[in-house]
Known about the structure:
Shape: globular
CATH class of the largest domain: Mainly Beta
Helix content: under 10%
Number of helices: 0
Distance between the termini: 47 Å
Number of strands: 34
Amino acid sequence: GTFSESTSNSPQGVAIMNNIIYVQDTENHLIRKIDLEAEMVSTVAGIGIQGTDKEGGAEGEQQPISSPWDVVFGTSGSEVQRDDILWIAMAGTHQIWALLLDSGRLPKKNELKKGTCLRFAGSGNEENRNNAYPHKAGFAQPSGLSVASEDPWSCLFVADSESSTVRTVSLKDGAVKHLVGGERDPMDLFAFGDVDGVGINAKLQHPLGVTWDKKRNLVYVADSYNHKIKVVDPKTKTCTTLAGTGDASNVISSSFTQSTFNEPGGLCIGENGQLLYVADTNNHQIKVMDLETKMISVLPLFTSENTVVDGPFPEEKQKTLPRLPKSAPAVKLSPVAASPGQTLQFKLRLDLPSGAKLTEGAPSCWFLTAEGNEWLLQGQIPSGEIESISNQPTISLQIPGDCVSLEAVISVSVFLYYCSADSSACMMKGILFSQPLQISATQQGCIAPVELQYVF
């Protein structure tokens, strides 16, 4: 619709050309096109519901997609060199996808028609797996993309956040290769840290953004959880700290290395290669790094009082259930007998490692689900936050008066973000509790609260 009518939900990456902006509307699972001249917003990919398809191939507006996170322009194998592809970091299915803006050809693909949206690299398994065959490679929530179309590079650089790596995807044959960070074991997604070094000896922590400096042949990385900007030489695989002390704060100094950031999430380099723009997420600023004078400043933002770039904010915003890690334990509880109208209470009793504390500002939370028996959740509070490990919430569920089924399973998913005692490592842990219910018309006695206990 028009600028004043359209809405989005957690928009992330953008790609701009002339008067057109393509936006990853992440939590709506859409890719949107903003026409600045017509002042209209339209959808070019996605159906508005999170998809599970890991192949694709349908026309954009009929193709379900999952949590698109970043986007860059690219060129297909057509005879005319032009930006006719959108490369997409599809974080939800751990893959790299392509959307054809015109008819063209991908590496090792037949001619594809305009509007086709499909997988380019990644099996869909959450892994840190490099492979000469793009469909056998594995990513873990790819979140940042940048393209180096010129030889000898001819690749996409990928900030693969959950594996804490930067990877490359060849634009000639789709081969996925390691650049820096991570570990050799493709199943090890916990090889994170803050170490300058070469290749696998360098360590990052949840990088979210990358950008290619074609003037200097360097890659800049937003090393988000280390609160730093790092620079990588793709020829030598050397990774060093460019800016940031590692403290999550907001210090603007005359020196790159004395300035600080707070979870920087996005990067963009200016056309002449002098200025590097940083989305300093938790400081709510765009910072400008002058790569020649080594000075940092804050980009001033000016908006007209009459400017409307998004529609009305929805009154109730439905939270999206995060994906549980593969390593998350699943606890099956003993069945509970209940009758319509009764209230069942779940008391969270979770313990962290000694000295660990919840990460301030991170969304530790719980969710109720009832797959196949969604009627149980009508009118209920389906999710909530966990603000303190010493004062954990009690979750209430009232059995509806009209029951569709006499047997059901309620699932309680819990996500905890916490840091070690010395804050040297921060992580997310998840757990799934499954509670079978046996519903009887016969009035039951008082139901004892169910304690959801686990020690991480």
